[in-house]
Please model this.
Amino acid sequence: MAARKWEKSMTRYSRVFESWQIKDVRLKNRILKTPQDMKWAELDGRIGRDHLDYYATLARGGVGAIITDMTGIADPDGTVPRSPSAASDAMIPGLRALSDAVHQHDCPIFLQLVHCGANAQFPPRPGNERFVASAPSDLDLETKRMLFHGLTSWPLRELTVDEIKKIVVQFADAAERAKKAGFDGVELHGDHYYLINSFLSRVWNRRTDEYGAGSLENRCRFALEVIKACRARVGKDFVLGIKLNGAEYGVPEGTTSEECRQFARWMEASSIDYFNVAADGYGPYGRIAIAEQLSYPAPPEHLIEELSTIDPKQGMNVHVAAAVKGAVSVPVIAVGKLDAALGEKFIAEGKCDAIAIGRRLLADPEYPRKAEEGREDEVRPCTSCITCETLAVMSLTGGVRCMVNASLGRGAENERFTQAVRPKKVVVVGGGPAGMEAARVMALRGHDVTLYERESFLGGLLNVAAMVKGTDIFDLPGLIDYYKGQMRGLGVTVKLGEAYSPSVNSKAMPETVVLAVGGTAAALDIPGVDSRKVITSAELQRHAKRALVLSGAKMVERLTKLWLPVGKKVVIVGGAIQGCETAEFLLKRGRTVTITEPGEEAGTGIPLLQWELLHPWLLRKGATILTGVKYQEVTDRGLVITDRDGSERTLEADSILVTLPLLPNPSLYEQLQGQVPELHAIGDSKEPGLIIDAIAAGFVAGQSI
Model:
């Protein structure tokens, strides 16, 4: 899509898009890429191809500076699998290639250095059963359960003083390698659950020696030794920053804002050049670092007063950055689901000097340039699904992916498509995510694209998902609006309310047809299934679509809080993502819910970091979750099942909702075979999956035609 003309003096965000400096490093604007664990490195920690592609794309997209994903200073004791390493000189060539790729686009790059401490090599996996992580202290079983996703068996070993001194040197060695590799600076990772913060925080630090929790000075000693050692090695002109927990919430031992302010004063005096300030938490506050996720699936029941007046989508963690800014004179960077508009506001209010953005730049690496040029309607939105964050924690193979940006991690720079050798007349059937993505990519490549959608609106099941998931946190309506804008801007002809058929095909005479018609609902084949109690997913979708014709997903979601075609006592058939999110939706509307799942586990398809929150919330709200069940029949009383113990039970219900995963839908594909020169089926119609799978299928199809 061609960029509209603009004048720099006319940008809405004059403060965000002014040039500035950190020490002697000039940044073209005040948006930085915040560090995120991408899991793209080679097994030995060398920089991977996806690193080079993504960071070059990001630099070209107009970001002011890049802070890399965390890079280990010691292997294996200080890192996690598939993260970059700066632990030896052998890593310098790869690091140099990365800094060179970014510098080609007039963009500074800072290497974030980390010792993962207690979280090194986490999570447990085959091959590391005997690994023992090093930490300031060993911890009791209850604390481990809180910190390690319910695990109490994760072994920890308390560091000796000699080992602490060695790690200080390893940080300095890595900082020197970063300088040799051409980076503009380094950022020390003093946030989250990693080693520097583990000394700062009494949650982790139970020592009684000079590095122990007995005083602020002792807690900060390790961090200050690391800072001084790095400065001595890299010299006074090299940028040295640190990422800090501005506060820790949820437990009495958490670092307070005032304690962090004191740490920051000492760190500035020891030659820190900037602070990147986040927040962290434990228990019900365990997702505050991901800002809006603190409110998923609902805010903590007893939200502390300090956070009670903050909108999670309007800078959840900026208050801790503002507190640090009031204590130091060097630049302070704020994080937490921010954008240019919020950055403009907070910079003007003096709460920070710049903002760092993560997930929004995974979704659209060109966000800074588009925002500066007044093209925010062309920005591919982050929907807050946190698929990326889950893969950052758990992936050991493919690395981070983005639900809405299928180019991420695919060995290609964002949106740099090869033009079609011969433009074709292409028909896309289906206006869901797979179809719209395929149409978008093919139009960008020069094809003449017409999209047919039998409903009177675009989005397909994205609309239903938006209604069920809710719109307070998740921005699926924004994704639908983005695709609508892309169809208009790229000249895709959209025919709404028109079903595609062999007769339509004979009149349209396309060279290529891409079928993205969606899957077909799985049926519950047991006696009594024709009861009025049973509501199939197809029926639910018809109810939703009738409402969506009149208003958008946001309005329909609000209206469902007033009325639903569902009884008070509900049994859900199917406990994967469809069933569990439907259960959440119903519980928030006063229903009593039982989830039944034939498989061994519920929640399949839900990102781990959300399932860890949703599962206990469902149980707290009174949901019953039964796995390993067999469905027997529907009676006047409800659903008869055989449970995992082999006992027959009747689950009383006013309504029985069938939310089984979709099945392939090959009907139209079979009808069109032989009637069109080139025919493809993609998305749920071929292989049902999640939204990320549908968009990826559209992306791949769009590139291949």
Summary: The CA atoms of residues 463 and 479 lie 10 Å apart. The radius of gyration is 27 Å.
